[in-house]
Amino acid sequence: MARLLSLIVCSLFSVTAFSIPLNNIEAMLPAGSQLALSVFNTNSGEQIVGRDDDILLPPASTQKVVTALAASLYLPQDFAFETKVLQSGKDIVFKFDGDPTLKRKDLQLLVSALKAKGIRQIRGDVWLDGEIFTGYERAVGWPWDILGVCYSAPSSAITLERNCVQGSIYSEKSKRQTRVFVPEHQPIEISTNALALTKDQQKDQHCDLELHYDSNNHYQLSGCLAHRTSPLPLKFAVQNPQKYMSDVLASELKKAAISVKGKIRIGAPSGQRSFIAMHKSAPRDALLNTMLKRSDNLIADNILKTLGHRYFDQAGSFSNGAAAIKAILKQQANIDLDTAVMVDGSGLSRNNRMTAAQLMDVVQYVYTHPQIGLLAMLPVSGVDGTLKYRSSVRHAPLKNKLTAKTGSLYGSYNLAGILRNDKGQDILVVQLVTNYHIPASDDRPSNVASPITQFERELYQALLTSSLTTR
């Protein structure tokens, strides 16, 4: 009897010692944070956790999995963006269809094709035709304060070098004024009246570096920047993609000794067109791989608009693109996103709303249909993409165990994907953390991880060891 009692006590102690309540892990988040969590065991098909998974929250970049699934189901595998050069009477037409990967060297090859056709003078106008897209180039809900940086570059049919330009700002100790540098080949203007200060001066004056810009691709830096021994790299979103392309194309035509009698115009001329040359982007899956691994906003939004164009047979926009994605997923995957709020393909808009359960429907479809190839495109913890350096999962025992899309906005930290646990079982998980804000009074030592890092580390280790409980 004593031996039996001892075994029962040991058994109970073992269960208690290796059970980690979800409430204890959630308590690691700052007060006021909100967690929605959905977890499924693929072996049993049972839901392990369903914490507030029916509440609409900002999905951030986990929404790219939704965009990628719709693209995989609707666009042919050999789909590629095409940029064409055509002739219409005396005019030359550059027809763009939203290639987010078009580079200047690609444009140079198209210009070279004109010369190879014996064209030394364009007797009419040069047209930049981007009429395949319409409407806003920035979705409703994109915050004004990030529109000047490259991860929120405008989603336009006429796109070059990711609608992103680079420069640098210098703040030397010996000088009060900062100075800027921009490579000559970029047709933009940048000026600065920002002051170079010590870190203490900058803190005392509550003075930050600010960026102002206009629709002519003119940028102005103001405010303050702490002294640096090396220049601060800058990446600006092109504010007027059409003007930028026009200026670059004018330069490339001049380099190629091709004169233009008319003007470079935006739009599409009437009349018949004859083909001269074409550049094709990488095919669909290569584009989606980049979009998911690197969390590329421009690819996601231009694919969304392309879906809207193709599905509704009209110029693509944020509005019809979002409607197309919902229709495609309902018709081809039986995934109902009617109550979700989708205004872009990237998840950058603060207006997007989706439940953890809806995202789980998408993750489950991706998992149960490996032939579409999206699983291999998701970042892997500690290995590649946006999970390569994510502090919570980059090291053992979680390294190489989690395959998931990340998503971050101000106050939001999300994940959606698959964890392989210690039993060799695949666990599907969607994590939406919102209203996450560390109080100004936080006095953690510098060597102590942030609350979100501690939360994620404990959550995924508990899932790894099958020790998570909801009691």
From TrEMBL:
One of its GO terms (molecular function) is serine-type carboxypeptidase activity. Keywords: Carboxypeptidase, Hydrolase, Protease. It holds the Pfam family Peptidase_S13. GO terms for biological process: peptidoglycan metabolic process; proteolysis. It comes from the Bacteria. Transmembrane segments: none annotated. The keyword Lipid biosynthesis does not apply. Belongs to the peptidase S13 family. PANTHER family: D-ALANYL-D-ALANINE CARBOXYPEPTIDASE (PTHR30023), PENICILLIN-SENSITIVE CARBOXYPEPTIDASE A (PTHR30023:SF0). This is Serine-type D-Ala-D-Ala carboxypeptidase. It comes from Enterovibrio norvegicus FF-454.
